[in-house]
């Protein structure tokens, strides 16, 4: 129940609020320093997750997109700018020579995106070794499940990735067609919708059946209100803010895991948010 690594390093912070894109060398130094600071524990580097909804002065993202949440963002932006992707992947691969790291792709929608990035990783690894850089023998590649299509199509690409991370903030938004930043939709945007709970169960179970590590990130991962629910669904890895670590760890230790798993069928039969809330309340009694 300890902290076993850095579950999500948001590389877009290197790109935001600046007029020029960070160079390969600048990115390499940033990633290397993070890896060295974790002293052997795994670091998960997420590739650029920028879109028109985030501040960027470099001209990298398109302005005026009618719906930035459904536009050129995440891995889509990286694939649309191959030079940008190669620069970031080279920096990450160079940093892999200094400690344990793996690469996470945001906004994955289909298998083709993963295969394209995997091919670039293989090519760039060979290039870097020819140039004399030390690159890890194997750098894990993971998919962030935050688009419902990716969750439903997981069987088609589960063997092409090394791990799975469920991005619950966007997954809830896209699954329920409810803007998480729209206060008028506050009651509709909830991870306690039966469809969300069942989809989480399906993704977790599918990943585990194939022997792939699976983590949940987003607000619910650090919210003790959701601990019993996530444990009942089979989750074994939480990716959360360090500030919530101790509280979540105490909550996990306060539950009987076998008893929670035995109650999971009733949770999955819940018909609405109220029934799920009552299930959680009974688990905390």
Structural class: alpha/beta
Helix content: 40-55%
How many DSSP helices? 12
Strand arrangement in the largest pleated sheet: 1-2-3-4-5-6
What does the overall shape look like?
globular
Q: N-to-C terminal Cα separation, in Å?
A: 22 Å
Radius of gyration: 19 Å
CATH topology name of the largest domain, in short, is TIM Barrel
Total strands: 6
Parts with pLDDT < 50 across at least 5 consecutive residues: none
Order of helices and strands: EHEHHEHEHHEHHEHHHH
Q: Main sheet?
A: 6 strands, parallel
Query: How many separate structural domains?
Result: 2
Instruction: Give the rounded overall mean pLDDT.
Output: 93
CATH class of the largest domain: Alpha Beta
Percentage beta strand = 5-15%
- CATH-defined architecture of the largest domain: Alpha-Beta Barrel
- So, the CATH homologous superfamily of the largest domain? Phosphoenolpyruvate-binding domains
